[in-house]
Amino acid sequence: MASLTPQNAKPFSLASTWLRVLPKKSCANVTNLAKNAKKLGQDDPRRITHSFKVGLALTLVSMLFYVQPLYDSFGSSTMWAIMTVVVVMEFSVGATLGKGINRMLATLLGGSLGFGVQQLATLTEKEDHSIVIAFSLFIIGAIMTFVRFFPGVKAKYDYGFSIFILTFSLVSISSYRDDYIQILACKRLLTIIIGSFLAMIVSICIWPVWIGEDLHNLVASNIEKLGDFLEGLGEDYFDESDGTKTVTNKSFADKYETVLNSKTREETMANLAGWEACHGRFRFRHPWKQYLKVGNLTRKCAYKIEALDCYISNDPGNKIKDSCQYAGIESGKALKELSSAIKSMTWFSTTTKAHIANAKGAIKSLNSLVKENTREGIDVLEIVPILAVASLLTDVIISIQRISEAVDELASLAHFKMTTINVTKPLPLQREGTIQPIMFQDELLYNITSSTSPKQYEISSIALMIHSV
Amino acid sequence: MASLTPQNAKPFSLASTWLRVLPKKSCANVTNLAKNAKKLGQDDPRRITHSFKVGLALTLVSMLFYVQPLYDSFGSSTMWAIMTVVVVMEFSVGATLGKGINRMLATLLGGSLGFGVQQLATLTEKEDHSIVIAFSLFIIGAIMTFVRFFPGVKAKYDYGFSIFILTFSLVSISSYRDDYIQILACKRLLTIIIGSFLAMIVSICIWPVWIGEDLHNLVASNIEKLGDFLEGLGEDYFDESDGTKTVTNKSFADKYETVLNSKTREETMANLAGWEACHGRFRFRHPWKQYLKVGNLTRKCAYKIEALDCYISNDPGNKIKDSCQYAGIESGKALKELSSAIKSMTWFSTTTKAHIANAKGAIKSLNSLVKENTREGIDVLEIVPILAVASLLTDVIISIQRISEAVDELASLAHFKMTTINVTKPLPLQREGTIQPIMFQDELLYNITSSTSPKQYEISSIALMIHSV
Predict the structure, then answer these.
(1) What is the CATH code for B211-424?
(2) What are phi and psi of A179, to 5 degrees?
(3) Which residue spans adopt a coiled-coil conformation according to this UniProt entry (chains A, B) (predicted)?
(4) Which of B37, B62, B367 sits opposite A381 (nearest CB)?
(5) What is the pTM of this model?
(6) Rounded Cα gap, residues B284 and B279, in angstroms
């Protein structure tokens, strides 16, 4: 192949090489494409069903053309029904409903205003019609375009305003040439309504994709991912006898990369979910905005964990104490409790609080451990990483507490099932012993007995712990 | 007003109250709306000019209706030109070009395929026409909808695929009813080209909004915001004699909230900027993707700073040493150098590297300071916050270095002006003295003299410092 540089290649040999290489290359490309397509379908099979749904909706709407009586009543306006189906049919029910409703209302209002302008134009001389129409087109076009910049409008009604300008322009300009503009506009509105309803019915009735449910699951799974990472912090990382970081940790970092950048996605989903009426476990006016609050707090927690992760990877040589590991496991469990509470829509606040309290207790005991050690003359700089991890973990625990409060609020707003668990059985403490909840002077205490080195975490009341920050 | 609860309110008094309250309320609403509109316009005056541009484009395209010879040649197909202007006319040049080109190509290809299906249908019996058309509609609709899920297609050609399905459906279905479909399809294509070009010309020629320039400025200003914060860390926060956090810091947190969540926005902008040809300082094929790399590293740096900020706000009572302040100021300066390098498209790598080296030196001296202090028997837990801030600052400095490398790459890809500055004048050191760059055995050293407490930072060669991590 080195002989085929542009300097010495003869046209014939170049062509023959291309002829040999091209089929292989295009074959590889096709295989690659097929692999990608398969992966897309496997990642979310609803993509395949959605594609068939669009095909079905198109075939259904084409019936308006084939069936003579239907075509007789609408004529060439039927094409608006086809356009509507193509444009309105979105992946999720919320997006389809939002676009359909926006399109129908905007066509009605834009058409009415266009008709009003036509009436206004007829009050003037015939020669001035075009001036009145052009002037109103300029003014209404400019004003409506500016209104689209309002954040509230942009989020939910952007498409509607675009269709409003479109219909207004079409109706008002057509009125200059066509005297039967009212009939035409009515037919257009009617076919757009038919197309919108067809798209909405197909979207809702055949394998519906509820974006609200997706948002619900996304928020819960983001929390779960962080919980997995924190638990893994204890199990995978600290447990390595030589202290080096395992390769699996890399995938944790990748995992919460999606958590860190989910804000825009969550906001779009919450806006679209607002269009969906009650479905499945979700009632009408489900508090979708509260999910954004939980999502924001989850991201803040993820920023802390990101810092924690970098810290650990920068100093892999240091031995981190049991308490750090325990705090990581307990805060991971707290997050997983929160995630499963959202997923199952059942709220046990007590167990989450117990895990948070345990994690805090571990950090507290770590601090006193450090104090003792340094009195014995250990080099401070050697325990700096431990201290840094401990202080970052404290931050993580505080932000978990904030997530817990937001989930609590969500639970009451969204009418989660409320369950109180009486913690009487000892919780198993990994590798270290057990935590025994005990009642002492009306306060719930945790008595932690370690199998390796007997020590007691004196944690006062959970309530006190949780409100002390 | 307490008497107007639904239980005891009489219809008459309720109505009169409404009559009294409503005008005031709507008056307040209108004032509020006007205020919001004014703010929207002031925040970005290009919103107002864009609105007028849309109005102008609509008025211009309506001329196709008023001018008899033009209307004679296109007839009712003229409405496609209006639709095209409304839909294609976007805020930025990139978005308008992208939509226009997508729309024209998709109409051409979709129409051709639709015509092909019509030809295929004519090969069959007349009664089977509708079956062939309906079947191809289902298959092509489903396949093209699935293709829209490919990430590469979704990012740049989603609109084109939607228009492809639309045109294909319209042409193939219409062919069932209309034998002159080719002429109609050609007219439609022609008016769509006219509308697209009109929108693109208005978008480019009248106060153009180049999204590439916006991306360029966004990336630079995000880096600058972080620099401001780090400099402020030294000046505003640490400098307070009582150590409490000043109120202005709250606004810093708000400022980099937008930095943290800019990923989606930057990606959209880079995709749209790809449609823009050379303009102003930007050549054809400007490396927009490299801005995403710089942006990603900026966000990673912001995560670290977020952790730093929380740490500081959690422990406001502790005195933080001079070195921390100095490291903050120097890393802030490094970021601001990077930001102004991007803004001015002129790259001085030496000064940035000097600031980074200075910041590292400050952290180094801090560590030795801590070592000395603890030997003297100071309580470790009291200096934990200092240690944590120092370790987080180290992380921040490392990520600034990565940003610097990415900007270096950007500078060579985008052909920034390269300038080497010979650092011979002493850099002023705020509140503390001066940094004197000195040459010692072919290595650039920085001699820092403090006005308050004389001390020397021994920093070996910058190159060594920068490659040691």
Answers:
(1) 1.20.58
(2) -85, -15
(3) none
(4) B367
(5) 0.82
(6) 8
